[in-house]
Amino acid sequence: GAKSYGRSVLRYFEPKMESAMRTRRVLETELRLAIESDGFELNYQPVMDLEANRIVSFEALIRWPHPTMGPMRPDQFIPLAEETGLIVPIGEWVLREACKEAVRWSEDIGLAVNISPVQLRDRRLFQVIHNALKESGLAPERLELEITENALIAETDLTLGLLHQIRDLGVRIAMDDFGTGYSSINYLRKFPFDKIKIDRSFVTGSDQHSESTALVKMIASLGIGLGVRTTAEGVETCGEMESVRAAGCSEIQGYFLSKPITADAVMKLLAQDPQSYAR
Ligand code: C2E
Ligand code: MG
Ligand code: MG
Ligand code: MG
């Protein structure tokens, strides 16, 4: 009968499934521990304005120095944190920590923080942002939240209202990884954005392949037309920088300028003569 069939199927899949589930459970427990014990770190990657040729902001990127598995990249634990809802306390920590760090920088340097779609579905996010700004004393105008277009698929009045509320604080919103999700162009019309971040997949080889060149140019023009800034993500070579500059992008981010660095390294970088890192 159904019962014995179910049992035999279970027996067949059990070992593999069980070990995958155990790994997940262990990782989840370790994530909880890391939240309680201040176990995460933030790195910061500079963003350079292509007109002024100087660093104008840093993007905070989370790192998890895992006790046994070594440093973990966000892609290795953010999905689980999202499934379990743990991204909410983690995201709150990121906001508070990054704002606290950014007040130490010069006042003309901005801070970008990634916000998960799961955080965006929680109306408490507004209070979390408000508190992080209050607590740190960071001017709201210096903070920019990065949201991927896929975060808006499950678009609701709540999300739209939240984004407007956040913007009313003076905080800016950037659309991250632009071009990789669905209906990107439609979202630009519906949602209040201040910046488009062009995904690395369009930027890589944009000085070599005419398709990429055309797409970067199109997105940069879209930005100019909409009156929003555009950032080319993942610029790794001088050629790519020159091609996105020619395309009309406002700023670049990528290994060509710098990899993500520690908070201490940011302070050292900002203490240098701006000309020493101009590209
Ligand atoms: P993202 O927001 O698009 O961040 C850019 C990613 O590209 C970062 O990877 C950065 O290290 C990498 N990158 C920058 N320049 C280059 C380059 O020139 N070449 C290459 N190959 N890569 C480059 P990372 O730090 O591993 O983060 C991956 C993603 O994880 C982020 O993509 C973001 O979506 C997410 N993430 C990171 N930190 C947080 C966080 O605090 N909260 C949330 N919710 N998500 C985060
Ligand atoms: Mg980002
Ligand atoms: Mg991105
Ligand atoms: Mg990305």
UniProtKB/TrEMBL annotation:
Its signal peptide is: none
In this protein, which residues make up the domain named EAL? 24-274
Full protein name: Phytochrome-like protein cph2
Taxonomic source organism: Neorhodopirellula pilleata
Instruction: Provide the organism lineage as a comma list.
Output: Bacteria, Pseudomonadati, Planctomycetota, Planctomycetia, Pirellulales
